[in-house]
Amino acid sequence: MSDFIRIKSSQKNYEVVFNKDIFDVLNVLLREDTFFVVDSKIYSLYFKHWVGIDALDKRLFLIEAEEKNKNIESAQKLIENLVTGGIKRNSSIVAIGGGITQDIVCFTASILFRGVPWIFIPTTLLAQADSCIGGKSSINFKSVKNLVGTFYPPDKIYIDSIFLNSLTKDDIKSGIGEMYHYYLYSSSDLAHKLHLMREEIFLDRSLLIEFIRESLTIKKKVIEIDEFDRGERRKFNYGHTFGHAIEALTNYRINHGQAVTIGMDLANFLSYRLGFMPESDYSFIRALLKANFPEASFSDFSIDDYCNLLNKDKKNVNANLTCILSRGIGKLEVRELELNIQNRSLISEYFSTEYSRK
Ligand SMILES: NC(=O)c1ccc[n+]([C@@H]2O[C@H](COP(=O)([O-])OP(=O)(O)OC[C@H]3O[C@@H](n4cnc5c(N)ncnc54)[C@H](O)[C@@H]3O)[C@@H](O)[C@H]2O)c1
Known about the structure:
- This is 3-dehydroquinate synthase.
- InterPro entries: Dehydroquinate_synthase, DHQ_synth_fam, DHQS/DOIS_N, DHQS_C, Put_AroB.
- It comes from Leptospira ainlahdjerensis.
- This protein is an alpha/beta fold and 358 residues long.
- The chain has helices at 22-30, 40-47, 53-56, 72-84, 99-111, 125-131, 169-186, 190-196, 198-203, 208-225, 240-249, 256-273, 279-290, 303-311, 341-354; strands at 3-7, 14-18, 34-39, 60-63, 92-97, 118-122, 136-141, 144-151, 156-159, 321-326, 332-337.
- A 7-stranded mixed beta sheet has the order 1-2-9-6-5-3-4, sandwiched between helices. It has a two-stranded antiparallel ribbon with strand order 7-8. It has a two-stranded antiparallel ribbon with strand order 10-11.
- Strand 1 (3-7) and strand 2 (14-18) form a beta hairpin.
- The radius of gyration is 20 Å and the shape is globular.
- The N and C termini lie far apart (44 Å).
- The chain binds nicotinamide-adenine-dinucleotide.
- Nicotinamide-adenine-dinucleotide binds next to helix 2, helix 5, helix 6, strand 7 and helix 7.
């Protein structure tokens, strides 16, 4: 039996549908005036031998889902291909892939003819548990991640856990990082449950559906009251300001959700050392987050380079860093942090000792 979560948005209400056979969905979409934009890896893994693929003919476009391709040039190329392929303003685009495919298609769909309907079939845990709702598109510009973007929700989202089977352990950890940031925002019991079930989840990915539903339910409540990120939704930047700079510094070798995991731990460390968060909370949350860190070490970089990247963060409104600090589970706050000598040395201390501490 399929079930769904309905999201209210000022642009259009839309649904996330769970437990529907994805090939049944595609067979229906195939008959419409639809254009498919598919992550090339997903195409090879799941769709190459699907009988419907021939019917797509000139309506199928593949995307190489790499961070360096999440830019305006890719959107421009996609527009060219779609227009050459005969897309009209009442056609639809079906995007199948993770957050990169989503960001490129969402951005393109939002500007082509001032808006073409689009449907999203997320294939990574991160995209299923987080990015698929909320309507944001984010495109990198030069060295700055997610500098350009729009708000343009899809018309429908279909979630099928079958795609999670081909993800690596680090891909799953990336999604878990984003799920934790919702659970720690709302003090969900699932934060601890997820920690206890980690090994089981790696073996049976269908167990993740309960956790995906919880993340989306938490996110839904906030985006429905603050769709355009002016108030409460800003707290979802927890771990992201510090995480984006880690992604950029490592040239995206560390994936998004694991960079966010380190980012949340650093935000908690600063909160604890600046006197906001009790040490007991810091240590408790640290145990959950530490299990989700990347295997590869991350410490051979200059703190000046790291702080320069923080300074460039698009959420800063003045010389200070706008970031999310925490007073404990469920108690996040938007704060301005001066990147003065004292705070720089705390960040340096975190990476030289705390980050690698058992
Ligand atoms: N728009 C938003 O609201 C939002 C929110 C969070 C993150 N993001 C963005 O999402 C991006 C990260 O996305 P992501 O982590 O979902 O993945 P991704 O799109 O970056 O893909 C990562 C890799 O996984 C592969 N892949 C995708 N699905 C797979 C599957 N089922 N099996 C095997 N391999 C698969 C891709 O081909 C790629 O090699 C970042 O650019 C981030 O900034 C956007």
